[in-house]
Structures are given as structure tokens and as C-alpha cells.
Write a structure and sequence with these properties.
Elements lengths: L1 H28 L4 E4 L2 E15 L2 E5 L5 E4 L6 E2 L4 E6 L2 H27 L6 H21 L2 H21 L6 H14 L7 E4 L4 E4 L19 H13 L7 E6 L4 E8 L11 E6 L2 E12 L9 E8 L11 E17 L3 E4 L2 E8 L2 E6 L2 E5 L2 E4 L14 E5 L11
Helix pairs in contact: 2-5, 3-4
Length: 407
């Protein structure tokens, strides 16, 4: 029995030894690499913070016991004395008036189309060319994502196609369509607003309100303190939006502000009056060029500073911003982005190994910027030893050596 146990132990030991030898041989003969393509990247030295948006704005109250309907779309401009909203006695009355306006627009559309086609002498070739141009315009508008422009282009394209149908003799009975629309329009002609709400200021309309429009005094924003900013951000974070009493707001100045609290050390290389970029962290495609108004030159000994940044661009999307996590981009840097684990030192020089066909080559590189587990490396297209675009940077591999060939 003892003999059998010793024999089994010896067999196990031999198997383990052979398994180890096999693994070592396999590791030497079958070296695998993980690579990453070298691409030119732009990164930013930045300050991460939470900012409050301050605008020159005030809410517009809805009338009690009335249905209030804006006359404007978000982002529309309005002058002094303009109609900003309509009031109705009921939802049904508001709906009927909306149908009346839609029917009027349709009627104008077909009447205009009829006037264009009376005595129509356009050739099929010219209308085909017009359709091609409208299709191209529609595609370009679709690429920009502008909904209003897309609707306009679709309408123009529809006009062109309809006129082509009429030119080539297809039966399009505009007269019957127009007569039917006139009849329907007449049936809703008595639908009218009870009254119009006018404005005594010019500005930009927004249907979005949150109840914090007067939280910070716009006229004193340039001198806002750290405590005031922190208090306002805390109130917005802990309070619920209060919108029930308003149907919208009027923004009376294009100039608006980001206000935030940052460490004084983070603004050492900035100065008041300087322009920087600000990106929203929930969507870094939203980038604004802003001017630092105050806070970039804190007094000696101040650990934090109240940074105030100004923008003069306003649209419907910006009108809804309030408390935002942002990154202030203080400097842009360009280079090759790579994992920090790809860095090596060869003969006293820093760089990365790249795989060219089956050969390992060492490319010299210095760290331009680092964050977390990645680094931005220098890119010098004029240097024969520098990283080249589309190099396959080795991010994981064994026994790396310049010039060594692996099969």
C-alpha cells in the first residue's frame, strides 16, 4: 500500500514538471501581444467643478382659471409690445383655435402652390434639377440635426415633387383641396383667444422654468461671494422645481454667467479677462467659449475663489441650464494617447514598443500629460525615432526588445 502511494506521488510530480516545461516552451514560442493604434488626440488641462447658471430672466405668470398658450416657440425673440401668450376659457377653445391656425396655414400653402402652377411653363428638366437640389439640402439639414430647418426642407421638397406631378400631367386637383380647406377654416373661424398677454420688454422666450430665476441677483453677479455660490447651489440641489404658476419666462439679455467655486491653486495660470472653454460633463459636445470676469486673480492666502465666467450666446437649450457639472478647459494639448502600462525605458530613454509586421521597434516619447491610467505622449512627425501615426503600440507583451522578431 505504501509502495502504491509513493508511486502515485512520483507520477504526479513528473506530470507537474512536464506541464511546467511545456508551459515555459509554449510561452517562449507563442508570445501574444495586445496593441493599440497610435492616433493623434487632443486633451485638456482642466478644472472640474459644479457651476450655477445666472441669466437676466423673469417668469411670466399664467392667468388663474384660464388656459394660457404661448404665442412663441422656445428661443424665439420678441420685441416690446409683442404678444407673448393667449388665454382661453377652456382646453377645447384652445384646441379649436389651434386647428383654425393649422387650417389657415394649409390653405395659404395650397393657394400659393396654385399661384405658382397657373400658366406653368417650367420644363421637367428644370423641376428635376430643383428636386435634386432640395434633396441635397434636406440631407445636409438632417446631418446638422436642426429640426426646424429639416421641416422647412421637407416642405420645399414636397412642393417640388407636387409641381412635377402637375407638369407631367398627373391629376392633382388643387381646386378641390383649396375649396375643402376654405370650408373647414370657416367652421372654426369663430375660435378666438379671450385675450393676448403682451410684454413690455424685448427678449428671448423660453417655456422652461424652474423657480430659481431670481435666486441670484443678476446685477450683482460679478461680485458674488463663495458663500453665496455655495448657498445657491445647495438650494437648487435640495429644492424641487416650482413651475406650476408659470407658463414660461423671458430672458432679457444675451449675456449670462457660469458662477462656481474652485481652488485658488487651479487658477494660477489664468487671469481675469482671459477666454477659456467650458464643457458640460454630461455631454462634452456642448462646449462654450466664455470670458473670465472675476475670480482668476485671488488674494494671497485665499484657498478658494469665486470664479465668474461670461457668455453672450443664447438659445433654447442654454435657457434651460441651471446647476451643471462642468470642466473648465484651461489649456489644450495634442499628442498620442496611450495606456500608462505601455511606457518603457530602453537604454536610458523613455518610450513605447510598437509592432511593425512581426518586428518590435522602440519609439522614443515623453509624457506631455497624464491622468489616471493613461498618458499623452509627444508626437514629432519630423523625428525618425518618434511615434508614427497608426503605429501599433504594444500595451501588453513579454520579452520586448527593439529589433526582435516574433513569429
Amino acid at each position: 500500500m505504501k509502495m502504491k502511494k509513493d508511486t502515485i506521488a512520483i507520477i504526479i510530480a513528473v506530470v507537474l514538471v512536464f506541464a511546467y516545461i511545456f508551459y515555459q516552451c509554449y510561452s517562449v514560442l507563442h508570445i501574444t501581444f495586445e496593441t493599440e493604434t497610435a492616433l493623434l488626440s487632443t486633451v485638456y488641462e482642466k478644472i472640474d467643478t459644479t457651476a450655477l447658471v445666472v441669466r437676466d430672466e423673469h417668469t411670466i405668470s399664467a392667468e388663474a382659471n384660464k388656459v394660457t398658450v404661448p404665442c412663441l416657440s422656445d428661443g424665439d425673440k420678441i420685441n416690446v409690445g409683442g404678444n407673448i401668450a393667449m388665454t382661453f376659457s377652456s382646453n377645447e377653445a384652445a384646441s379649436n383655435y389651434s386647428k383654425y391656425l393649422d387650417l389657415q396655414n394649409d390653405l395659404k400653402y395650397y393657394e400659393n402652390l396654385e399661384s405658382q402652377t397657373v400658366g406653368q411653363a417650367a420644363s421637367v428638366e428644370s423641376i428635376n434639377s430643383e428636386i435634386d437640389e432640395n434633396v441635397n439640402t434636406f440631407v445636409r439639414s438632417a446631418a446638422t440635426g436642426n429640426a426646424q430647418s429639416l421641416d422647412d426642407c421637407a416642405s420645399q421638397l414636397g412642393d417640388s415633387i407636387l409641381r412635377r406631378q402637375m407638369i407631367i400631367g398627373e391629376n392633382v386637383d388643387l381646386i378641390s383641396i383649396i375649396q375643402d380647406l376654405r370650408k373647414k377654416t370657416q367652421s372654426f373661424s369663430s375660435s378666438k383667444p379671450d385675450k393676448f398677454i403682451t410684454t413690455n420688454e424685448s427678449g428671448i422666450f423660453s417655456s422652461y422654468t424652474d423657480g430659481f430665476e431670481s435666486l441670484v441677483d443678476y446685477k450683482k453677479v460679478k461680485d458674488i461671494s463663495i458663500d453665496e455660490i455655495n448657498g445657491a447651489i445647495k438650494e437648487v440641489s435640495s429644492s424641487k422645481e416650482k413651475t406650476s404658476d408659470y407658463f414660461g419666462k423671458l430672458i432679457t439679455s444675451y449675456a449670462w454667467y457660469f458662477v462656481c467655486v474652485v481652488d485658488s491653486d487651479s487658477v494660477l495660470n489664468l487671469e481675469n479677462g482671459q477666454k477659456v472653454q467650458v464643457a458640460l460633463k454630461n455631454n462634452d459636445r456642448d462646449v462654450f467659449t466664455v470670458q473670465i470676469i472675476s475670480g482668476a486673480e485671488p488674494k494671497a492666502g485665499e484657498k478658494q475663489t469665486a470664479l465668474v465666467m461670461k457668455s453672450s450666446v443664447m438659445n433654447s437649450k442654454l435657457a434651460s441650464l441651471r446647476k451643471e457639472d462642468i470642466e473648465i478647459r484651461t489649456k489644450s494639448l495634442e499628442g498620442i494617447k496611450a495606456p500608462a502600462s505601455a511606457l518603457h525605458v530602453s537604454e536610458g530613454k523613455k518610450g513605447v514598443y510598437v509592432l511593425v509586421s512581426s518586428q518590435v521597434k522602440f519609439r522614443e516619447a515623453e509624457i506631455v500629460y497624464s491622468e489616471g491610467d493613461w498618458v499623452l505622449l509627444t508626437y514629432d512627425p519630423d523625428s525618425p525615432n518618434s511615434i508614427r501615426l497608426y503605429d501599433r503600440i504594444i500595451t501588453q507583451g513579454k520579452e520586448l526588445e527593439d529589433g526582435k522578431v516574433y513569429t
